[in-house]
Structures are given as structure tokens and as C-alpha cells.
């Protein structure tokens, strides 16, 4: 078996040349991962709201149908919001891409096992909910295909990326939520958005 | 009365004489305020408003699996430059509490229109614990709560809630009391004489 994918390398690869891609990250490791790839005004890393990442991405995607929205989150965060897979799928957002970095563990709280290591198939659940595309990613070649599907293909896409449950140094984004929100809105909507 | 509430008062009329007028007026108000994303977990008290929003091409109704999804959705809507509202029954408020830390910590505008159960004249014992604590739990997490207990008060309270939420960037809940909606009578629904 080839060696496992590493989460930070994948996120760096997916965000390289991101252009005007809008990026939402679930709390914990995915937020550190997108920040490690480079803090950016069009990043919205969550510091809490566990289970909210994909739905927050849907709200952005519906409001900005001409922009692509990438949600990067973890298996534990996604497991908390399985109903959101149904809610998202029925909206058929063609510009929403959900990438779950699945290390089969709750990494921030002491590496306790999640359901995905015990047979629960998140990509299968997304497929059954009605995502246009839902699949697992296990190899470097799969990552390259995933990147192509995000940047040149249509959503709603769901990718469950099996990654190494490695412990990595934290790379923290700004913690002030109002700042993150306004920075994102100004970058996307212009300075007048602060007057709305 | 806010100007917006006054304007819809004079411009809307319910199509059936015994149907309450407030859902039509609230719909007109939401439209006037350019509310685009309507996140819902249905309640009987919201049925007519939901129908009006579904028919409105300027609105996108997003049916939720559970209410807290709507809190996250509408934070995303605001990030993307759209406004929304969240419609739910009071029993759904309990589901939202942790997700409400998102609009509170980030100062996202959020208007929740909550139709009450476990309130005036309730029949179902299971509805009482959540209904009776709805206002307390919302206020405990930091949401400003306004109540409307008569049909005549609903539009004005919603109008005020919209202004508070979107002008001061915070979550607001408008609780629409069972006294205004009429309590569900299960004996009538089952045809039981007891």
C-alpha cells in the first residue's frame, strides 16, 4: 500500500493558484490547514460552530452563484451534520465543493476514533443524499483529479480524502470573527459592503 | 410603527377573508427588505408565510434537516452579500444554541421568526419544557428576544426585528405567541369529544 496522503500537502495543492475561490474551513485542523497554505481575505476559518461548515458554504454558494465555494472540513465536523448533506443536495448548488479531510480521529481532543474508521462511508452518504459527485480520494493522482474537478467541473461535489492522522503544529488564523467576516465581505463585495 | 411596516399594512390583503393577514404582510415586509434566503423547518404557524415565500421568485426557500443548519446557512448568505431569515417552531430553538455562537462571535445579522408551542393554551405536555424556556435559553446565549402575542403586533415586531438584526449586526429572535396563532386543538383534530 502506498503511503497515506498528508492533509497539509493536499490543501496547499488544492489552493495553489486559487484565484477568486471562496474558502470556508471547519474548526480545528482544517482551519489550521488552510491558514498554513496562506492566510487569505477570501478564507473564512471557523473557530467554533461545529457542524456548520458545509451549511455556511451553501449560504455563500447560493449568494454567489458565479463564484466557486470550497468547504474544507474534517470527518468529526461532518459527522455532526449528516442532515446537512441532504439539505445541500436538494439545493443542487453547482458551485459548491465539500472536501472532508478524513483522518478517522478527533485530532484536537486527543485522537479519539470517529465513525469513519469503523466503516461509516461519508462519500457514500453524500452520494445517497444526492450530491452530483461524491467519491473517496486516496492517492496523489486522485488529488490531482479532485483539483481538476473543483476548478473545471461542476458541483455539488463531495470528496472524502483519507489522510494520515498525524499531529501537526498549529497555524492559527486571526481569531476575531467580526474581522474575518468583514475582511471576507470587503474582498468579495467591496468596501461599500461595510455600509450595508 | 416603522415606515416599512406601515407600507405593507396598506398594500397587502389576504386572499381569504378568515385567513389572518399577518403572513401576507410579513412576506411583503421581507420582500421590501430584499430578504433572499428563507431557511425553514416548517411549523403550522408559518405554513402560509412559507407558501408565499415558495411562490416568490425573488426568494430561495432552503428546507433544513434541523434548525441550526439555518444559522450557519444565513451566516454564509451574509458573507456572500445576501440577507435571509430563519423560520422555525420554538422546539427548534434548543437545536440552535451552540450554532448561535457563530453570529454572536462574528456579529452576523440574523433574524429568527419563531412560532411558539408549549405556550398559551398548549395541549401537548411534551411541548412545555422547550416552549416555556425558549426565551430564557435564547437570552442566556446572547440573543435579543422580542415577543408578539397578538396578531396585530406581529408585523410591527418583525419589522423592528429586521432593523435590529441588519442594522446592528446581531441575532434577533421574534417569538410569535400561541395566543396570536391559536393553540392547536388535538381533540378537534382527532374528532374526540373528550
Q: Helix amount of chain A, in percent? A: 25-40%
CATH class of chain B, anyone? Alpha Beta
Mean pLDDT reading of chain B: 91
- Largest protein interface? A-B, 37 and 33 residues
CATH superfamily of chain A: Thiamin diphosphate (ThDP)-binding fold, Pyr/PP domains
Please give a structural write-up.
- The complex is a heterodimer of chains A (196) and B (194).
- Chain A is built from eight helices and eight strands; from the N terminus they run H-E-H-E-H-E-H-H-E-E-E-H-E-H-E-H.
- Chain A is an alpha/beta fold and 196 residues long.
- Chain A has a single domain, classed as 3-Layer(aba) Sandwich (Rossmann fold).
- The longest helix of chain A is centred in the C-terminal third of the chain and has 13 residues, at 140-152.
- Chain A is globular, with a radius of gyration of 16 Å.
- The relative contact order of chain B is 0.16.
- Chain B has a six-stranded parallel sheet with strand order 2-1-3-4-6-5, with helices on both faces.
- Chain B has helices at 3-11, 22-32, 47-55, 68-79, 93-96, 101-106, 128-141, 151-168, 178-181, 186-190; strands at residues 35-40, 60-63, 83-89, 110-115, 144-148, 171-176.
- Chain B contains ten helices and six strands, in the order H-H-E-H-E-H-E-H-H-E-H-E-H-E-H-H.
- Helix content of chain B is 47%, strand content 18%.
- With 194 residues, chain B is an alpha/beta fold.
- The chains are: A alpha/beta (196), B alpha/beta (194).
Amino acid at each position: 500500500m502506498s503511503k497515506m496522503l498528508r492533509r497539509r500537502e493536499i490543501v496547499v495543492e488544492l489552493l495553489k493558484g486559487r484565484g477568486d475561490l471562496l474558502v470556508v474551513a471547519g474548526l480545528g485542523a482544517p482551519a489550521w490547514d488552510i491558514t498554513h497554505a496562506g492566510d487569505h481575505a477570501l478564507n473564512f476559518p471557523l473557530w467554533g460552530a461545529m457542524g456548520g461548515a458545509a451549511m455556511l458554504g451553501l449560504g455563500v454558494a447560493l449568494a454567489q452563484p458565479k463564484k466557486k465555494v470550497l468547504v474544507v472540513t474534517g470527518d468529526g465536523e461532518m459527522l455532526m451534520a449528516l442532515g446537512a448533506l441532504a439539505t445541500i443536495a436538494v439545493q443542487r448548488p453547482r458551485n459548491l465543493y465539500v472536501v472532508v479531510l478524513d483522518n478517522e480521529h478527533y485530532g484536537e481532543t486527543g485522537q479519539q476514533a470517529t465513525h469513519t474508521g469503523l466503516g461509516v462511508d461519508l462519500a457514500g452518504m453524500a452520494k445517497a443524499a444526492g450530491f452530483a459527485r461524491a467519491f473517496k480520494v486516496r492517492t496523489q493522482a486522485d488529488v490531482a483529479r479532485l483539483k481538476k474537478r473543483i476548478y473545471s467541473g461542476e458541483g455539488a461535489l463531495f470528496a472524502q480524502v483519507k489522510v494520515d492522522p498525524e499531529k501537526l503544529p498549529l497555524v492559527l488564523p486571526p481569531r476575531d470573527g467580526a474581522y474575518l467576516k468583514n475582511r471576507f465581505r470587503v474582498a468579495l463585495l467591496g468596501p461599500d459592503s461595510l455600509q450595508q | 410603527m416603522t415606515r416599512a411596516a406601515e407600507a405593507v399594512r396598506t398594500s397587502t390583503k389576504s386572499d381569504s377573508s378568515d385567513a389572518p393577514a399577518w403572513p401576507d404582510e410579513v412576506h411583503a415586509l421581507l420582500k421590501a427588505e430584499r430578504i433572499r434566503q428563507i431557511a425553514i423547518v416548517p411549523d403550522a404557524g408559518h405554513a402560509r408565510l412559507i407558501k408565499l415565500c415558495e411562490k416568490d421568485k425573488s426568494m430561495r426557500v432552503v428546507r433544513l434537516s434541523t434548525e441550526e443548519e439555518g444559522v450557519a446557512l444565513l451566516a454564509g448568505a451574509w458573507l456572500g452579500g445576501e440577507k435571509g431569515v430563519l423560520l422555525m417552531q420554538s422546539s427548534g430553538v434548543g437545536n440552535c444554541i451552540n450554532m448561535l455562537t457563530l453570529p454572536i462571535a462574528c456579529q452576523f445579522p440574523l433574524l429568527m421568526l419563531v412560532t411558539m408551542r408549549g405556550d398559551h393554551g398548549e395541549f401537548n405536555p411534551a411541548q412545555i419544557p422547550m416552549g416555556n424556556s425558549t426565551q430564557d435559553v435564547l437570552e442566556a446565549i446572547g440573543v435579543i428576544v422580542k415577543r408578539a402575542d397578538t396578531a396585530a403586533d406581529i408585523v410591527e415586531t418583525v419589522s423592528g426585528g429586521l432593523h435590529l438584526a441588519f442594522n446592528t449586526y446581531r441575532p434577533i429572535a421574534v417569538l410569535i405567541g400561541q395566543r396570536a396563532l391559536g393553540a392547536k386543538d388535538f381533540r378537534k383534530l382527532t374528532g374526540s369529544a373528550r
